[in-house]
Structure formats: C-alpha cells, structure tokens
C-alpha cells in the first residue's frame, strides 16, 4: 500500500487536471510529439560535440576527455586551408548576393514592368531546381565561358575559388530575394511619403527610412545565404578545380576513408560559428 500511494496520487492529479480543463489529450500529445521532434533533431548534434573530445581514434566510443583532436585540427594545414577558403567564398558570395537580392526584391515588390512574371519565375528557379541540375548547368556555363575567353585572348582559365564563388552567388540570390520580399510585404509606404513631404531626397529616404525597417529581412537573407554557402557540397565539388580545397568536399573525402574525432571537431567549430552569427544577428536587430 505504501508503494502504490505515490502512483495513485499522481493518477489522481492527472485525472483532476483533465477534469478541470487544464490538461487535454491533444495538448499532452502535442507536448510529447514536440519533445520527440526536438530529441530527433538535437541529440545527434549533442553526440557529435561530445565525441569530438573523446580519446578514441575512431570517435565511436568514449574513452576519456581530450583536446588533442582540436590541436591536430589546427595543426593540419589542409583542413585549415579548406576552412579558410570556405569562409572566404561564403563571405564574398553572401555580400554580393545580399546586395543584388535586396535590389531585386525591392524592384519586384514595388514596380510593375514588362517581363516581371518571367523574371519572378527565373528568381525562384534555383530554389525548385535540384542542386545537381544547377551544378551541371553552372559547370557547362563556365566551360563555355572559358572556351570563349581562350579563343579571344588565348588565356587558359581553370576552375578555382572564383568559379565556386560565382556559383554560390547564383543560387544564394534567390533565397535573399524571398526573405527580403517578406519584409517588404508589410512595409508602410506612408513613412516614405511623409519623409518626401518633409524634403528628403530618395537617397536619404532609403537610408533613414527604408533600410532600417527592412534590415531584419536583409540580415535574415544574408544569414541564410552564408549558411547555404558554408555547407554546400555539390556545387562546390563541381566548380572547384585542382588544388582548390573547400571544407565540405574535404570532409567528404575524409569521411569516405574513416570517421575520426577530427571531423567531429571541425563540425563543432562550424556549429559554434553558425550559433554565434545567429546570436549576433539577434543582438543587432534588438539594438536597431
């Protein structure tokens, strides 16, 4: 009787909560389902981070805590070079695609012109087209451009970081346009009209009124473009030439041979970078 009392009391509390309307089966099911989804999404990431500190050479067993894999990672010039190249490509492609995507979003949202529907379809095309098709198309396009340059100037060009950057810009612009256009949907144009009535020119209206109000959308689009560029594999594989090492391709080549905690370490560092960027964007938006 003593052992069953707590269970009986808990059951009585649950029945009481149901009877009082504070707890329903739908709410309980939603809570359980949400917990399972979060576990499914984040438990593998937690395991990845934990096993980046294990002493086991294969990273599948916990045999002790160590920072040796991070030290080896920073002393590995190939991995560090691939990480640096990836960050450079992601930064340049994010800046360019954010500028172009913001201008396209404003043009598509505010102006009506001939060919607007066709332009809108072309903007959304990189989002719906499979990435392998996009990669093959960019590879063929770069080959044609290189042949034309060779015939005109005699200069032989090879695929390098520039071709990868151009490819990342090509598919990142569409994502920036979608995010920025969302910010422009609820934009109050009367604020710009009031500024114009007070004597502000178009340049001042944009920088003092429009830009601050759509800045959260611009930051969101830039973060999305940066993240997509960081973890892109197929386009990076197709457009990178000999001697051009990028982190997703390098990690894939190493995983094909063996999974080591060094891979877990570089993945953990990229995770921390992504979380830091999200926190920075939230801080900037809060200050604005």
Secondary structure elements and pairings:
Blueprint: H1 4-20, H2 25-50, H3 68-74, H4 77-110, H5 116-128, H6 131-153, H7 161-185, H8 189-197, H9 202-230, H10 234-239, H11 247-257, H12 261-287
Helix pairs in contact: 3-12, 4-7, 4-9, 5-7, 7-9, 8-9, 9-12
Structural overview:
With 288 residues, the protein is mainly alpha-helical. It folds into 2 domains: 4-50, no CATH class; 75-287, MetI-like fold (Orthogonal Bundle), CATH 1.10.3720.10. Helices cover 79% and strands 0% of the residues. The chain is built from 12 helices and no strands. α8 (189-197) runs antiparallel to α9 (202-230). The model is unreliable at 1-5 (pLDDT under 50).
- Main sheet properties: none
Shape: globular
Secondary structure: number of strands: 0
The share of residues in extended strands comes to under 5%
- Rg over CA atoms, rounded to whole Å, is 26 Å
How would you classify the helix and strand content by structural class? mainly alpha
pLDDT under 50 segments (min length 5)? 1-5
Name the CATH class of the largest domain.
Answer: Mainly Alpha
Q: Total helix count?
A: 12
Give the CA-CA distance, first to last residue. Answer: 62 Å
Please identify which CATH superfamily of the largest domain we are dealing with: MetI-like
By CATH, the topology of the largest domain is MetI-like fold
